[in-house]
Design goal:
It is built from no helices and eleven strands. Strands 2, 4, 5, 6, 9, 10 and 11 form a seven-stranded mixed sheet that branches.
């Protein structure tokens, strides 16, 4: 059974930081491209950042220089370090694993508010 379990979300003030984690099981993690998405009510899910099996990364323009995606293949976990958070970063953040199959986590809420 494949499971992707996100954690680390919560309420943070503008300018603060959070670190999201996505622990994966049931897949050969090192073979998968891992992507963080986010979604707010009434909007489509959007890509935040991705990392390939080889460690190549890509970021949405809105988060470049503020967010960092990384992976630990020994722990089957992908991370998203989020710094200098803004109100517009408020969303549900989802972890995605993609190779020949496509899997999603259940999401974790991030709220940036004073």
């Amino acid at each position: 059974q494949v499971q992707l379990v996100e954690s680390g979300g919560g309420l943070v003030q503008p300018g603060g930081s959070l670190r999201l984690s996505c622990a994966c099981s049931g897949i050969t993690f090192r073979n998968y491209v891992m992507t963080w998405y986010r979604q707010t009510p009434g909007k489509e899910r959007e890509v935040v950042a991705s990392i390939t099996s080889g460690g190549n990364t890509n970021y949405a323009d809105s988060v470049k220089a503020r967010f960092t995606i990384s992976r630990d293949n020994a722990k089957n976990t992908v991370y998203l370090q989020m710094n200098s958070l803004k109100a517009e970063d408020t969303a549900v953040y989802y972890c995605n694993a993609r190779a020949w199959s496509n899997y999603w986590g259940q999401g974790t809420q991030v709220t940036v508010s004073s």
